[in-house]
Amino acid sequence: MRRQISKEQRYQIDALLKVKTRVSEIARIIGVHRSSVYREIERNSKQTYKDTRYDPDFANHLTQMRHKMKAKNHKFTDCVIRRIHWLIKRLWSPEQIYKTCLARKVTMVSIESIYLYLYDLKRKGLDLCKYLRRHHRKRRKRGLNNQPRQLIKNRVSIDKRPAGANNASRIGHMEVDLMKCKNGYLLTLTDRKTTYNIIRKLKDKSSQSVKQAFQTLGQYQMIIKTITSDNGLEFTAHQQCAKLLNVKWYFADPYSPQQRGCNENQNGLIRQYANRNTDLNLTSEEQILAWQKQLNYRPRKKLNFKKPIECFKSKSVAFIT
Predict the structure, then answer these.
(1) Which of these, 115, 117, 116, lies nearest to 133 by C-alpha position?
(2) How far is the C-alpha of 41 from the C-alpha of 29, rounded, in Å?
(3) pLDDT digit string (tens) for 196-236?
(4) Are residues 132 and 93 in contact, defined by beta-carbon separation less than 8 angstroms?
(5) Contact predicate 212/285, CB 8 Å
(6) pTM of model > 0.70
């Protein structure tokens, strides 16, 4: 369990720093990890226009001020638990529960705490997760990867994307991603302005499979202007794919799915038809096109409840609806 550095340990740090003891040796003496000592010195040093100096009394003062100002976590009282059960069964999402309680100044735990509580209940035999529209993925510890990181050649940053794509003011600026299913993947493209979706089935996530899927998109060539993807190695053939449609291809920053938020949101809707256990070997191309059609004919709040197909079709003449 992680422990805070005590007041006595801060005086030890100050004394050892004055005799120029190495940080790793300080950590060994006071019995904490060296990263804790580095963080303590960095966060709690007294900074003036002349120099930076660690002062244990000043460090204690800063720590106490942070503790007073930080948000306090609410606990799972019987009242909170009853409120969660009642609202979840009425198909409220954890976010709706938390935000509404916050607005009404009613005690409630965080969104993540609600999710964790529901998953813990499911393990104990009471399944309230069936009332959730979406589930979090199972948490798992990230393993160390000994393989050298492969880089995508000739990638163009999202920072160079045109203004029409950034503010979604024009039709044809698409976001792309892959969704994992059983025995295959789904390639999904979403128009940023109209939320129009294109879905294609892939046998695997290789760049060759992605390229073959793009070869079937010729009917959209006059519409699509740019494509934005993440940095997955499945998009290493981006130059060939872009050439097939005569478009510009841009890459979002690493670990920034919010830069492709439109596509990420639509993938959540597609999961209503194809979850991770959907066997794509048993799913025909016609069925996937039927999913695509249902999504594109669904009214959207973003479009003032118009249908994506209506907005997108105004710029196109011959494509699969």
Answers:
(1) 115
(2) 16
(3) 999 999 999 999 999 999 999 999 999 999 999 999 999 99
(4) yes
(5) no
(6) no
